[in-house]
Amino acid sequence: MSTGFFEGIEKVSFEGEGSTNPLAFRHYNPDELVMGKRMEDHLRFAVAYWHSFAWEGGDPFGGQTFVRPWHPQDDMGRAKLKADVAFKMFDLLNVPFFCWHDADIRPEQGYFADNLATLEEITDYIGEKMQASRTGLLWGTANMFSDRRWMSGAATNPDPDVFAFAAATVKSCMDATHKLGGQNYVLWGGREGYETLLNTDLGQELDHMGRFLNMVVEYKHKIGFKGAILVEPKPQEPSKHQYDYDAATCIGFLRKYGLEDEVKLNLEQGHAILAGHSFEHEIAVAASEGMLGSIDMNRNDYQSGWDTDQFPNNTPEVALAYYHILKAGGFDTGGTNFDAKLRRQSLDPQDLIAAHVGGMDICARGLKAAAAMVEDGGLEQALTERYAGWSAPAAQAMLGSDLGSITDRVLAEAINPEPRSGRQEMLENYVNRFV
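The structure corresponding to this sequence follows.
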């Protein structure tokens, strides 16, 4: 099926920092070597199908502003047209990956059997598109938050029929992801939480969510899916209290239900901000536990109280995120998914291309700055110096000691420590040399 949606827009190319072309890369050169590895292979960019093609431009206070040729998204003909447009954009940007929810790629039919039929049909169609494209699937997932059936959660729903519908839905999406060669499968519990404890059995809901995720892992091994299973933390919105609040909460949950060796995290910048954290904090927490899987790169408006999902434009923030990713060894099956959407006033096809060009360039700049900091070693040296006292034999012995023995040593040696500067401003100035 042909489409003229991007008619007149040429394939985006790298033109260098001197370029003034808004639809050209100034920093993202896929073949540029960074720390001995191609930039494309470091960043592993993915386009989000939902925000780029399924989102209609609404916000909490207003409805649709985008009028696309595939609207309304209610039949398979328009679903296939949407796929044609998507793969045209993948080609224009030359991205290696994309990501989807089932509800993005097929129309909602109501009954599971009908949803399954349309999902299988569009999976075959997308598979044909992929054969003629270099763009692969970074991950698939199930939308279990938009339809009214999910209003009280999916795996945590008090109605066992909803739990069953959720299980069948996830199975179908895992099958589709596996068939399309996806490198990961993601679960985001959009409504796995509660509004009030007056009608919530919190312990039962957590146990059900833990069992549900174990079923997912069991099915992964049954079908021979080699990709990673990822969960995505988010603190609130839409639920008042969400069970997957942040990286640390998710790690505790995974350990409680014996999943720490089977499941990793897909971290989003916007969700980190909603949780009161920085993105690099969430990445560092996941990396410290060996659970860093993939990232959704976007940003929030710091003057708004919800998840605005804007394209990244802050090089220092992005650089610090990639610094911790590089320190953790980089991505394995994960990558950089643009879980970001146009502003609802940005109506034109060119806006969609320009947004991704800008986001990819910011990530490239951030990656190069992060690599330069890693290679320079200044931050690592500062850490080594700050914690140098712990390398002394007496300090190491103390960790295996007890409070009484430590007290005896403090008295015997008249220990009276003087505080030492953390040099935060000097380290911030150091980072600014690279960004």
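The two ends are 44 Å apart (CA to CA).
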